[in-house]
Amino acid sequence: MVCGGFTCSKNALCALNVVYMLVGLLLIGVAAWGKGFGIVSSITIIGGVIAIGVFLLLISIVGLIGAANHHQVMLFMYMVVLFLVFIFQFGVSCSCLALNQSQQEQLLNATWAKMSNNTKIELENTLHCCGLVNDSNHTEQFQKDFLSCPVSPLKDN
């Protein structure tokens, strides 16, 4: 059984798109399961994961149909969308690598300040901690977080 020319590429692309479809369905299923069982309460996170799963599912369907039918326009659109996704991922990766330690701390502090109380409480319960920081440079913020903390850090788990 020799695989040559477009047949081999077609079969490989079809197999890859089937895997992408499964990953998309898995993302949608895990997000729905997490919301259903109350593991994640943030609807923003759940919505984002479901949106990414649906996007991946749709793109993989376009790639699968394009590869199976040798439809050049669909394959070109598929290639363009994957290239744009690659550029976006590359930009995000470069941005993440460009952040130094102090910029990461500023980003975390800004995010913690905007986070809802339910999300803070969930995070504190999961990590068995109180607040974001507990050093002498941030005593005011630590005292504020400690007063509203549902977890006793002195308990042994």
UniProtKB/TrEMBL annotation:
Cellular component GO terms held in the UniProt record: membrane
Keyword annotations: Membrane, Transmembrane, Transmembrane helix
Top-level taxon: Eukaryota
Native source species: Pleurodeles waltl
Subcellular location: Membrane
Membrane topology recorded in Swiss-Prot or TrEMBL: Multi-pass membrane protein
This protein's record includes keyword Translocase: no
Keyword Transmembrane helix attributed: yes
Official protein name in the record: Tetraspanin-31
Transmembrane segments: 12-33, 39-66, 73-92
InterPro entries recorded: Tetraspanin/Peripherin (IPR018499)
